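Progress note, sequence design subtask.
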């Protein structure tokens, strides 16, 4: 096993088999809050979150990892063991800033904190690359540089099924949510320059899905395409089939999202995450 430790935050929703296969891969949990109840994100499935929200009528909240959680992860950077932390996009969470603040308490140790500029499967792909490079004997600094290039060429599209969660979470105003629902407007969101921005506004969900898939053609050769969803397996499966047929030579994956992203985006959300080829 490499002496380089790779740390993901829990929004990556890394599969258990990946964690079991790599003892040097670690998770720092964000938290999900519902009323007075608090969970570490891996302890609460997205399906259970949505069930509880419906049952209790309370909107969920999230919080970034506690400083002590970062300290535990960064304590691995001892005896010359580098640590590379890959965090959810700064446009979605303050997790990366929290990690960088915590890393300053470990002066003299080799710690790298990378803003993935994405989440979910995009972070998992970065971790896979880091683990492979570490196993091949690449130094941590070179791996961190590669991850930064991956982050810079990764694109994230988000299609919420409803504007309710975005409204209740303070992401959009009440009037926008009301008229958007009446007119069946489906905003396609993207992560750009560290912020959540509107890529397009499309009438009806099928048209929005088609618009998302069209966006793939605008970014040249791709290394991978990931379809992620929040309890929308049928629609996500259809998108997966369409994309797989359209891009037969590109790896395509289908995964769920974790409960933190679910808390902000709501049930039925679809994500399309892909990376342009980089040097």
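Output:
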């Amino acid at each position: 096993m490499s002496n380089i430790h790779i740390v993901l935050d829990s929004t990556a929703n890394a599969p258990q088999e990946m964690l079991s296969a790599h003892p040097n891969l670690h998770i720092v949990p964000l938290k999900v809050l519902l009323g007075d109840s608090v969970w570490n994100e891996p302890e609460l499935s997205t399906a259970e979150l949505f069930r509880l929200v419906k049952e209790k009528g309370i909107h969920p909240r999230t919080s970034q990892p506690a400083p002590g959680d970062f300290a535990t992860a960064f304590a691995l950077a001892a005896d010359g063991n580098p640590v590379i932390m890959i965090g959810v996009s700064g446009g979605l969470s303050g997790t990366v800033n929290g990690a960088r603040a915590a890393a300053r308490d470990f002066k003299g140790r080799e710690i790298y904190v990378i803003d993935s500029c994405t989440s979910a499967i995009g972070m998992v792909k970065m971790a896979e690359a880091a683990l492979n490079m570490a196993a091949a004997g690449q130094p941590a600094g070179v791996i961190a540089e590669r991850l930064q290039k991956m982050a810079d060429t990764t694109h994230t599209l988000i299609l919420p099924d409803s504007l309710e969660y975005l409204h209740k979470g303070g992401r959009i105003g009440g009037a926008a949510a009301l008229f958007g629902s009446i007119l069946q407007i489906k905003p396609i969101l993207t992560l750009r320059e560290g912020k959540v921005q509107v890529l397009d506004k499309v009438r009806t969900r099928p048209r929005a899905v088609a618009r998302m898939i069209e966006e793939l053609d605008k970014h040249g050769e791709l290394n991978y395409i990931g379809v992620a969803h929040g309890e929308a397996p049928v629609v996500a499966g259809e998108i997966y089939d369409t994309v797989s047929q359209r891009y037969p030579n590109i790896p395509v994956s289908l995964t769920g999202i974790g409960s933190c992203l679910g808390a902000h985006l709501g049930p039925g959300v679809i994500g399309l995450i892909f990376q342009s080829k980089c040097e």
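Residues 121-135 form the longest helix (15 residues). Work on this subtask will continue into the next period as scheduled.
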